[in-house]
Amino acid sequence: MDLRYTPAEQEFRHHLRSWLAGVLPSLPPKPQPDDWAGRRSYDTRWQRLLFEAGYAGVDWPVEGGGRGSSPVEQLIFKEELERAHAPYVGVNFVGLLHAGPTIIAEGTPAQRRRYLPPILRGDEVWCQGFSEPDAGSDLASLRTRARRDGNEYVVTGSKIWTSHAEVADHCELLVRTGDEGSRHRGITWLILPMDLPGVDIRPLTTIGGSTEFAELFLDEVRVPVANRVGEENDGWRVTMVTLSFERGTAFVGDLLEAVELLATTVSIAQRTGAWGDPGVRRQVGHLRAELDALWALTKRNVSQAARTGVPGIGGTVFKLAYTETRQRLGELSLSLLGRAGLAAEDLELLDGSGLLPCETVVDDWFRGISLTIAAGTSQIQRNIVGERILGLPKEPVAPAAGNR
Amino acid sequence: MDFELSEAQVDLAAGVRRLCEGRFPLEVVRRAEGADQVVDRATWHALSDAGVFALCLPEDAGGAGLGLAEAALVFEELGRSLLAGPLVATHLAAGLIDGADDGSTVVGLVERPDPPPTVADGGSPVPVLVEHLADLDVLLVLSELGISAVDPSSLDATRLRRPMDPLTPVWSLASLPSGAPVAGPEVAKWWLRDGAVLTAALQLGAAAWSTDLAVAYAKQRVQFGRPIGAFQAVKHLCADMAVRTEVARAAVHAAAVTVDQPDVGDSVVAAAGAKLLADEAALANGRSCIQVHGGMGFTWDVPAHLAYKRARVLAGQFGTAESLAESLAESLAESPAGGHPG
């Protein structure tokens, strides 16, 4: 067990840090959350800067056009960007973390040439069409239908939780090409150009009042067969292959953001006088222990990935623990605001000490609620820990499931 | 940076686990339940031969010259075995008290402010309680100001009936002499830190043991026609036990490594966080293990209660939930944004 970074790792950190110090002050102000066109241009411009500096796709293999950095360098990359308050991956998320790696692993040479460089350069934006209104945790029951017609698939159905759909050029789309009851065996992975006729996007408003997600309605959309990644009916495996790119760094930015929020929470408690309450201090101290432990767990998961070359099951353990810690942090900071938390708007304190960061705290509390739901609910994660780590027997599946 | 165990570390932990399973399986450990003396001297020598006490002593002092990271792995295994006795105190005392390193001297420890405030001055009216008194050759009194040694046979002590943990007998003392000073504040400070890490490692082992026992039972116990572990209500209890253990393990290992590699962070903060989370994991897992066992978990025969009770005892040593959380909060108040090593 060695927590010290090697000279090469320190040099990687040092170069990145000085590049960030030079480039970040030149960025324009951040766009408003609901200004989607503005967000696209802001996020893709940042991606272009990363590309030009050689930092695009640090986690992509060299043969895919990426930097091919080690898992530890990937950890350092995400850590330094978060600490420097660099822009988030934003609208580039699906392309860089999902569609790109999938096409690297499973795409044809022509697909790689066509789709990978624009992702790295920030020229094209992707969204994800996996979940459906009736296929959430049970993704394999998805029903968006693709009928083969000559050189095209004719696709009809609907998708949900499609982040950035309004500004995306392409969608990684899972469709049913097999029989109704074929489940995992009848799914195909398609590249859907978002400008095709029959694609309809309707924004979904979250409980925080933002339009983070959209619903996607597909009505007889004709997708070229050449846009299929992998074989017909092999899309489930293609999707699972993508997950093997994860190196334990998925939550690095999130976790460091939580560390900052805890510091904000301390400062709120000090400014409002709540710091005198031992109960408040102990909750804060406890959260510090949890965040420190989760940082150590991140290093363990990254180290494990570095040794084995594949992600361990540690990511599931991390997500379960982190999301609940983060929610408790959100509860504490909101409760410390007291009546100042009645609106998501910063309030000027009467003692002249400046604004109380109510907007950050309330928005974070809203977002926290999604954490135990998105990317696998905590209930599903507990099944995974119980069955895959502890070897407990599987939950019995109702015989009718998938055959209706 | 490579936070995985090295091959030598994996071998060390496996060796201690084999020793414990072979020499002190639970049925052997349990024979001492309720006794005045629970330390078997032959066991203590076997532990010494395995290097448990002299692990961190330099090689020229007869030790193994290893770090606290290795000691934490060893103590995790000792915790898993539910072996009783003042293991942490004797390990800390190696090099300071003659015979602690080779297993010939059993050293106990009690934490007490120096000088202890009188009841009239707002001191606690609760008498001093000492664990394992009848087994001890030396009793050390630890405060932030230093360490002093007391002759256990000189004490006027009352054995308390029905100790919380049947393998941790307890005595009550109306007064505790100040004893002969053996170390100053510098040593006391690292004892408090390393003692917290090693006690956390024992708790971690107990938390893992409780998880294993609960999972084994959930696979084997059949109700409603299937193993109870197939039901989410039980499966999720077990999953939470595993998650708590893994988070605590990362914290304990990181704290131990931070002691060995001071450049990577604040070892006192890391030790406090590790102890806090390991205490919680041991307590919550001990409780869940009883719950998974249903009515049988409430019986003396099923050993689920032993880990829970041990966790209660250890949670009161080298920092309580309240004192640890307070000290962690203070570390943030000093530098709210800092503390996280790169």
Provide a compact summary of the structure.
With 404 residues, chain A is α+β, with helices and mostly antiparallel strands. In chain A, 46% of the residues lie in helices and 14% in strands.
Task: Tell me what you see in this structure.
The complex is a heterodimer of chains A (404) and B (342). In chain A, the strands form three sheets. A four-stranded mixed sheet of chain A has the order 1-4-5-8. Chain A has a four-stranded antiparallel sheet with strand order 2-3-7-6, with no helix packed on it. Chain A is built from eleven helices and ten strands. In chain A, a hairpin with a 2-residue loop joins strand 2 (145-149) and strand 3 (152-159). Chain A is of the alpha+beta class and 404 residues long. Chain A is globular and about 70 Å long. Chain B is of the alpha+beta class and 342 residues long. Chain B has a domain at 187-334: Up-down Bundle (Butyryl-CoA Dehydrogenase, subunit A, domain 3), CATH 1.20.140.10. Chain B has helices at 7-23, 26-30, 41-49, 68-81, 87-93, 185-220, 232-260, 267-292, 304-315, 321-334; strands at 107-111, 128-131, 138-143, 146-150, 157-159, 170-173, 180-183, 222-223, 226-227. In chain B, the strands form three sheets. In chain B, strands 1-3-4-7 form a four-stranded mixed sheet. A three-stranded antiparallel sheet of chain B has the order 2-6-5, with no helix packed on it. In chain B, helix 4 (68-81) runs antiparallel to helix 7. Chains A and B meet through helix 3, helix 7, helix 8, helix 9 and helix 11 of A and helix 6, strand 9, helix 7, helix 8 and helix 10 of B.
How many distinct domains of chain A? 3
Major sheet of chain A: order of its strands?
1-4-5-8
Number of strands of chain A: 10
Content-based structural category of chain A: alpha+beta
| First-to-last CA distance of chain A | 52 Å
